[in-house]
Amino acid sequence: MVCAVMFRRGFFLVSSTMASFTIPFISIAVNIALPTIAKSFNLDVAFVNWFANIFLISMASTILFLGVIADWLGKELLFIIGTIFFAAATFSILYVSDFKLLLVFRCIQGFGAAMISGTAVAILADIFPRNTGLFIGINTTAVYAGTTLGPALGGFLINYAGWFSLFTFTGTLALISAIIALLSLDFKKRSEGRKPYLQTLFVFMLSTIAISTGSAYVSQIYGLAALSIGLAMLISVLYVEYKKSLNLVKQIFEANTFLAYVVALLNYVATYALSILYSNFLQVGMKLTPNLVGMILLAQPVPQVLLSPLAGYLSDKINPGLVVTARMVLITLGIGTALIFYKWLKLLIISLIMLGIGFAFFASPNTTQIMRKIPREAFASALSFLGLMRFLGQSLSTSVLTAIMLALKNPTPMEATLTTYMIIAAIGTIIAAISIQYSKSG
Predict the structure, then answer these.
(1) Given CA atoms 189, 194, 195, 199 in this order, what sign does their dihedral have?
(2) pLDDT digits (tens, 9 = 90+) for 49-79
(3) Model-level pTM?
(4) Is the dihedral of CA 82, 88, 92, 94 positive or negative?
(5) What domains are defined for the chain?
(6) What is the CA radius of gyration of the chain?
(7) Distance CA 284, CA 69 (A)
(8) Model confidence over 308-358: pLDDT tens digits?
(9) Distance of alpha carbon 125 from the chain centroid
(10) In the chain, what is the greatest distance between 2 CA atoms, to the nearest angstrom?
């Protein structure tokens, strides 16, 4: 009996690892494919950015909603549904020739990815209570592997098999993950969490969509209106929840935790779409192949993977705020280096390495700092809110790039975009430094 239980748990670890690999892989690999997709559909590169951004908006707008639902209905059930949705949408993309319909399936794919991201780590924490850190570390390694292989393997597949091959590969992994999850999880088990406030979650979802979409068209009156309405809705619902002291946000407004969430958001706004910007510049501006571009962009995730364990070790030994602040300083310097020397390929690669080192010293300290304050019964909700900050930041980063491309009518606006991202990173550095003072006083 014990052996059977351990076998099922190990089986789920395989499923979780595969699913957690596919999401960052397809997200990064699609960024490399955008110029190729633009050519195949004869569309403007700025418009094709929506092929990447709709996936992120779908994840950002639903991950908190789905995480809270998972704490109520059952994390296992939501994980299985998520892998099935993700696999079905991914394979559907292979049979569609209309770009607008492609966007619909990318939206569904993001919805499935949100279910996976909001539940995988929480399930691992439940089924491996004695060695939670070890198995979450294995899952995190899969995420980093997807991030690392996204540029290189993605570029290789695009170059030699076409951009559709990205979805054949990813869909196959997702399907296998879904089958394994069905065999290893008790998806009929219900959680003991109370019924969530669906109205609040729905407003969260609408505000995220409005913010992400409006920021891409902020130079237009309708874009500015959508952004303003979205921000007003988000601030209002957070304030109302804070006053009610409900489970959803009662830990968020503790000064240290709140600042950690804000720094996470600004971190992803300042950095995520750099891969899209650099990919466009190298393919459109410098006429390099997707395969070569993928190898160049590999300079960023490799140091991230290699140094992440050291970052986790240091966050246990010293104030995590110091680690995060040093990381934000390095990110700002890396973007500044690219801004000055982007026309020199070797120096651009050096800036990517600096960014990779900075990324390594962010995720683990930031996540650990937040999770230590969260009760076990709210794990999925807390992780989902952190995921909301991550995916909203990534979506806003892409929207900022799209807005600049549309305003300047330039598919590779290096100087304007890098300047904007450097300012955002500098603001994140200041807030991270402020969080150190709060942690000392607390």
Answers:
(1) negative
(2) 999 999 999 988 888 788 778 777 788 889 9
(3) 0.84
(4) positive
(5) 2-441 (1.20.1250.20)
(6) 21
(7) 43
(8) 767 666 666 666 667 778 888 999 999 999 999 988 999 999 999 988 888
(9) 20
(10) 65
